Amino acid sequence: MEAPPDNDVLWARSLHFTHPDGSPGLAGVSLGVRQGEILAVAGPRGSGKTTLLRCLSGQVPLREGEVWFNSAPVHTLGPMARERLRRDRFGWIDPEPVLIPELNVWENAALPLMLRGTGRRRAKAAAREWLDRLDVGDLARRRPRALRHAERQRVAVARALAPAPTVLFADEPTAPLHRSDRSQVLRMLTAAARSHGITVVLATHDPDTAALADRTVHLLDGRRVHTLQLPEVPDTEGRAACSLSA
Ligand SMILES: Nc1ncnc2c1ncn2[C@@H]1O[C@H](COP(=O)(O)OP(=O)(O)OP(=O)(O)O)[C@@H](O)[C@H]1O
């Protein structure tokens, strides 16, 4: 088994994944993510972005391929060890806010910290700090059902950032937000990641979102594809080229 490069916090080789019903998920994806990097995983709907994030974060067992975290193999870990790794080192943001209805907002945001063993008082302070940064601090005592959809997603982002995970997996994290909120939350997320040295793997089909990342890998039909950056051409030349090919 060949070990990954030292400066990659996450490294995957030849990931293949088939869903339980036989649907193809990934067909041989390899990539490395450097410490502190914000990596966008871009591609159209159904291209395998969520599946890739789930494989990289140890949510699903791999049948073929390797995933390494900080030079230690993840693909050979059993379910309990993968769960511990996810709890202690990884954060996750879903496209839809999934909060615990019985807990209030700050308890939801503090939960991952408390599951790691942080005391209630410190966890609450950290949660409230992130809720404030995401402009939902004044809702801290409300139950999720009393919040708007976009507010619940801000709470989910605060919850993911509060424990300062080593790697944050964000699957279309701003999908439920209004367009005007989207860039503010994304900038907040990327700035927080940079200032805390959090590595981010960000699935998106939105080029504006991908533009905030340090690097983008593109998926199509469960495979990595390379996109060509065409050189900028003056508008008139572009139009001429278009009309020539028409
Ligand atoms: N639980 C599942 N069972 C069966 N097939 C699935 C399952 N989840 C995803 N798929 C299929 O796997 C392929 C990749 O899906 P995936 O959700 O990873 O893509 P995606 O790029 O994240 O798409 P989206 O942008 O819509 O979330 C698709 O063909 C999808 O229909």
From TrEMBL:
Name the InterPro entries on file: AAA+_ATPase, ABC_transporter-like_ATP-bd, ABC_transpr_LolD-like, P-loop_NTPase
What the entry lists under Pfam families is as follows: ABC_tran
- What are the entry keywords? ATP-binding, Nucleotide-binding
GO molecular function per UniProt: ATP binding
Which superkingdom, per the lineage? Answer: Bacteria
Keyword ATP-binding appears in the UniProt entry: yes
Q: Which residues form the ABC transporter domain?
A: 10-246
**Which protein family is named in the record?**
Belongs to the ABC transporter superfamily.
Name this protein carries in UniProt: ATP-binding cassette domain-containing protein
Species name for this entry? Streptomyces pyxinicus
